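ugh finaly. both done.
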Amino acid sequence: MRRRAFLRMMATAAGGLALAPRVRALPATSLLTIGQVQHAGRWNPRPTALRRLSWELSQRTSIETGADAVPVRLGQPTLHRYPMLYLSGDGALPPFSEPEIAALRRHVQYGGFLLVDAADGSDGGGFDGSVRRELARVLPASPLARVPREHVLYKSFYLLDHQGGRLLVKPWLEAQVVNARVAVLYSQNDLGGAWARGALGDWEYSCTPGGEPQREVAMRLGVNIAMYALCTDYKDDAVHLPFIMRRRS
């Protein structure tokens, strides 16, 4: 083979390799698609929230996301395809059936993650009172408890020291734990209300009392939650590695 032909062949091959990352697409099963739990109440009070969160994840992190969340029923056989589930509501949550409770329990015990988000700002009644009742049925041995401020959830991507959401009903998150892993995370602050953005780019709800900084914290918290749902505690020590190495040098 002449040198000129050889160089032409190598240049063509190199060009193909350079273009490969752009044209190679991940299979749909490798994308993070959030499953939004359907129930007999108002299960989708913030229809654009998860679409916006997925977009933010794709822009801010290396997580590849699906186009939109997928409505799921707790009893469906494909529930395991959604490592991150989202349960929201505006008003009281009707009781789940025993098979639904069993399916959700199995899902979170085998590594699945559930984010629960109260859209109505309730505290003791409404969605809050009823979802606490249902979560107690799901994991009776692990009651909801405050997530400590030093938990890896608050440093899985961003370092956070306060809460965000459409409202600030509680300055903390609560969780149910399975084998030292947060399996169910609960916010009373309407994270979805802070994430929701209309087709024209306008935010659908104002955030009170903190305004836009409070919304940004809610967005960063959403990113951290998704990162934790996928990676759990891997960053508990790694987040401090640059500081440790700097001190050693």
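ok and the 2nd:
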Amino acid sequence: MPRASRFARDRHALYEAAVQGVEYDLDFFERVWRATRGGRFRDLREDFCGTAQLACAWAARRRQNRAWGLDLDPEVLAWSRRERLSRLGEAARRVTLLERDVRSVTRPAAEVVVALNYSFWIFHQRAELARYFRAVRRSLRADGLFFLSMFGGTAAMDRLTEKHRVASCPGPDGVPLPAFTYVWEQAEFNPVDHRLLCHIHFRFRDGSGMRRAFRYDWRMWTVPEVREVLAEAGFRASEFYVEGWDETENRPDETLRRRSRFENQLGWLGMIVGVA
């Protein structure tokens, strides 16, 4: 009989399994770098890193790679050191985790900085967003790129609840996590200031659950707003990439393509790339 995973009710491990796709993200970063810069980059900084799964995966991808992870939450950084870095082998020496405010860090200079999972939406005021973007601009080398995830669509500015069944998959220690249900709730949206309140819940096979495992108090920034603030912060250009739609399967096709315009949908996932 297979042993039970000790991460079966660990909110960080469940989040990684349900939300993150670090190899997909890293492949996209490398594809854009090759297309715009040529060759490969080595140094990546993950802002709002949480468990730093992406930073660790980057260091493990090649021996030349180095990664930094920044977060203000000491609990999640301790989790990463205990559950991620301890299993990374020699690549752990090339990962640096810092309990720092992303608006205050400008060194060491990186080739790529990323802010994924809409994490920079915690900044509700334009001045604070600009302060963060200026810090990133100072953090980047002359040929650096800044990746920011975005979502939107006609259903994005409304209350909604989406459920997704997550199949059994390996946890941080390699032991399979039991299948579970991931629930994304958009609890409140204010069109006056674009404040968006969201929660993540988890439900388990035995009928139990973990309510409000994560809570987000965001401002939903739009693509033109973010690109304008990037320009104000000193980025010489920015590009927008969005996933296409598979009409046959009636779902996103999971391929990010550069677009200057596209037909709006109920929901879309995209990425803004700031060019230093």
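summary for the 2nd one i guess: The longest strand covers residues 140-152.
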